[in-house]
Amino acid sequence: MVAVYLAFAVVILWFGRRWILSLLTPRSIPGIPAYPDPVPVLGDIPRLAASMKATNGFIGFMDKVAKDLGPIAQVRISFLNTMVVVTDYQSIDNILTKQTQHCDRDSHTIKAFRTILPRALISLPTNDMWKHHRRIIGTAMTSKYLSLTTPRANESVKELVNLWRRKASVCEGRAWAAEGDMESAALDAICGMAFGHSWGIIPSYSSQLVEGEYPTGINGEVVFDTVRPELAESTWAIFNSLPTTSSFPYILHKIRTLSPTYRRHARRLDRFLDAKLADSRARAESVGAEVAVDVADNTLDLMTARQLRGDDWMPDDEMKDEVFQYLVAGTETSGCTLAWWLKYMTNHPEVQRKLRKHMLEKLPEMQDRPPKFEDLNATNTPYLEAVVHETLRLSRTAGGYSREVTQDVTVLGKVIPKGCTIIIPTVTGLEDRSTPVYGPDPNALGSDSVDPDDIAERMDASLEVLRPGSAKRKVGFWKPGSGFNFDPERWLNEQGHFDINAGPSLPFSAGQRGCFGKNLAMLELRFFISQLNQTFFFAPVSDALNSFDMYQTVTTHPRQCFIRPVSWDSDL
Ligand code: HEM
Cofactor(s) for this protein (predicted)? Predict the structure, then answer.
């Protein structure tokens, strides 16, 4: 019997040898500098793992590859498609906005998100179903609908302000960790926009606060032990089960779903969404489809009203996925960006003062009422816009994104064949690889792996392709060496007007598969930042609580986000 199995295995190996070899040694693209060189087959994997660890994970590693090898580089790792790292701004813009027939959402991202959102935009290739969904929910990102949902964002800001006032009085000048509050406030706001009311996470934290002593952490910070309400807890449990870093997302997720805890959380959310859908449908039926479409002030109401009108039908399961996608795609991203903003403010008192003065001058009404949708934009409040864009640029909430090459495509004069994955690290917004004065870093990736002279030569060769006859670049360059500084002024021209094309930054990606929720995210950021800034001065925190180290989940988080908010007239 053993002999039969052995013979069978030999036959499989013989006929499958090409396939096995292709898994071990992904294809090499001629003319594009490569790391690691030679291709890592199994024996090189520990070396590769060490490089990734040293560079703070996958995106940090891709940043390093770009830094060493220039605006186009390839990474070949056994069992993965050949990855082409592109960090030339003009080419990125071209890939995302013009080469959409050649480059689509990559299959790894689709497989990972499909585990928790089987039929939502983020986990669909650009097919008819994606277009249908996009047409239906796209309306929710228009100014009309965003303006109707603005009161929900304002409610969440107000609740956060109340919570922080109470925490500040408990802390008496000591700091506390704020990212959890920020993400919860973002989730409250996004729930309001997705299905009409917040989950009240922040009010629940407020109600749990009691007068008296709270424990102190090792660096003198106050530690609050508030717990999340059940629905929020279930949402986080599902977020955290997202297998983004696994090579076998489906299997890993299937194993997770076997746990009774996971199933309890999934059932709770499903029951909630069913109930919301039924409420929404009853509301639409009671006023009639036409009126319902017109008065919808959240995405679920909008979808059910359009379904009732009969022009845009979507099955219930797909509607539930789309609404839950708001929570998955919109919470950690917005919360984490706002957490970075808190850090920048804590370290830049001059920016806080300038922003407050700017808002008082441009919108004195804010003293008496919360801002309206049309109050906050690049024309009315340019310095606020600059602070928001600078936060998005520097925080790199999305460390990068990718595209799968579906038809051969030419980038910087090199043909990238079908089947490869293009990786776009957002480091381009910090250190533009196509800046003519940019030079190679001889210490990068370790002297044993890449010869600095070789790097210089390869970079020059890559840039050579860029220069002659290349289309005029539509965005400017950041001043060399300034990319890592927090400096909102870089977005303003001499007249003080906001200039979106001042320099490279693509926090939301671009093109048809760029961030669907960009307008909603911008609304949230403008409303949270302007109102928190008007209410609080974020006083400096001790060095022990002020590290700028980061870690990555789906987004890039600060390891420490501690705040000491005080009122503007405080003498702290
Ligand atoms: C600061 C906040 C946010 C950032 C930095 C951000 C960033 C991104 C990025 C980089 C992508 C990938 C684009 C690509 O692959 O080219 C994306 C996709 C997406 N985002 Fe956001 N996002 C944010 C907030 C939101 C919010 C509030 C929503 C709520 C609806 C949202 C919904 C989505 C969806 C649905 C997709 C997938 C679109 C598609 O595949 O067609 N995002 N986002």
Answer: heme
